[in-house]
Design brief:
One of its GO terms (molecular function) is S-adenosylmethionine-dependent methyltransferase activity. The chain is an alpha/beta fold and 215 residues long. Helix content is 38%, strand content 21%.
């Protein structure tokens, strides 16, 4: 996983924790290597985690990671399968929590995917889409790039493929999801079906210091 995504992943897990703790069924859309779901499954063994992706290579890696996790008896319940994000193969209201992590640039039709996430989430459930914000603070971007040796181009491509806060609000309004929240946190865009608390200030480089500072 790219270094600059480690702290955002940890923050997403913290945001999800209170909802996953009460969930029975959790879905990750665009799971990539499956690391977020696998880590959450190890912490919340009462929940069944389903992860989908349309990239065969990512799914291969996710399945390998699941095998390794089982070898160390992590105890979580995790399955992954192929699915296009615009046509999720699940009934309405199937999941208590639906989330994605840095997958929006890979979605061919983000509006359709978010609509699908809302469709398969149960009433009263939680949807969180966590990604890079194209309108992130320039100083924050420069700070992260200092520690992105060999990965800066890939990071910037992903950033430029993201949404700004106003663009995402407009997209949600077009779906009739005006009551969803959109926040920019550091370099990240957080879309949620419910209000979420944050534990660091927007644009605060301190959220990355733990991973970038030598101890």
């Amino acid at each position: 996983m790219r270094t600059q995504l480690i702290i955002p992943m940890q923050h997403l897990m913290k945001l999800l924790a209170p909802y996953v703790a009460e969930a029975e069924q959790v879905l990750e859309v665009g799971c990539g290597p499956g690391l977020v779901s696998l880590r959450l499954a190890a912490l919340h063994k009462q929940a069944e985690f389903t992860a989908v992706d349309a990239n065969d290579r990512f799914l291969e890696v996710a399945r390998e990671n699941a095998v390794f996790a089982n070898l160390v008896n992590y105890g979580g319940r995790f399955t992954c399968d192929w699915s296009h994000s615009t046509r999720l193969p699940f009934e309405d209201d199937s999941f208590d929590v639906v989330f994605s992590f840095c997958a929006v640039p890979r979605w061919s039709r983000p509006a359709m995917t978010i609509a699908e996430c809302a469709r398969v989430c149960r009433p009263g459930g939680t949807v969180i889409v966590y990604d890079l914000a194209r309108d992130a603070d320039e100083g924050m971007i420069s700070f992260v790039l200092q520690y992105s040796a060999g990965e800066a181009d890939q990071f910037m491509r992903s950033l430029r493929s993201g949404y700004t806060v106003p663009e995402m609000r407009e997209l949600l309004a077009g779906l009739g999801l005006d009551d969803w929240s959109v926040a920019r946190e550091g370099i990240n865009l957080v879309v949620s079906s419910r209000p979420l608390g944050v534990d660091y200030a927007v644009g605060d480089p301190g959220i990355y210091e733990d991973i970038f500072t030598e101890r």
